[in-house]
Write a structure and sequence with these properties.
By secondary structure, the protein is mainly beta. It has no helices and 9 strands. It has a single domain, classed as Allene oxide cyclase-like (AOC barrel-like). 0% of the residues lie in helices and 55% in strands.
Length: 143
């Protein structure tokens, strides 16, 4: 069973009144590093990894964060931050549940720089697990 990349998975509903969406970026990221050998509540997963275009070679930024195991064999609670190389003074903060074997959809809690006007519920960070230790991520902001 795959452990969480690191990030994030609380299922988000679209905010009321949202009429359009704009994808900020799609990228691939490798799994995080697990601390400890046992799958117990409180176990940590740490992520401080580069993120890449779909070719998995061209670096476009970095994701950092951590996950805490809540229910062994089921899910984690994660929080982290995404930094894009072409937006050096901007970041997105994400938080939510990561479900084993499924990934998840997480809240974009807020941001800095270019993303400073984003408030909770105005975006989502969707992670789909890939079969080879990578995760496919799509960040969407709702107008």
């Amino acid at each position: 069973m795959r452990q969480p990349l690191l990030l994030f998975a609380a299922l988000l509903a679209l905010p009321l009144g949202a009429t359009s969406e704009k994808t900020v970026i799609k990228f691939h990221q490798p799994d995080g590093e697990l601390l400890g050998d046992e799958d117990v509540p409180g176990r940590l997963a740490i992520l401080d990894r580069p993120i890449y275009k779909s070719n998995r070679e061209d670096k476009i930024g970095r994701v950092t964060g951590s996950c805490t195991r809540i229910k062994p064999g089921k899910y984690w609670f994660c929080t982290g931050e995404v930094f894009l190389d072409d937006e050096p003074d901007s970041s997105l903060v994400i938080s939510g549940r990561w479900t084993d074997g499924k990934g998840g959809v997480n809240a974009v809690v807020g941001g800095t720089g270019r993303f400073s006007k984003i408030a909770g519920g105005e975006g989502q960070y969707k992670v789909d697990e890939d079969s080879d230790g990578w995760n496919i991520v799509k960040i969407t902001i709702y107008d």
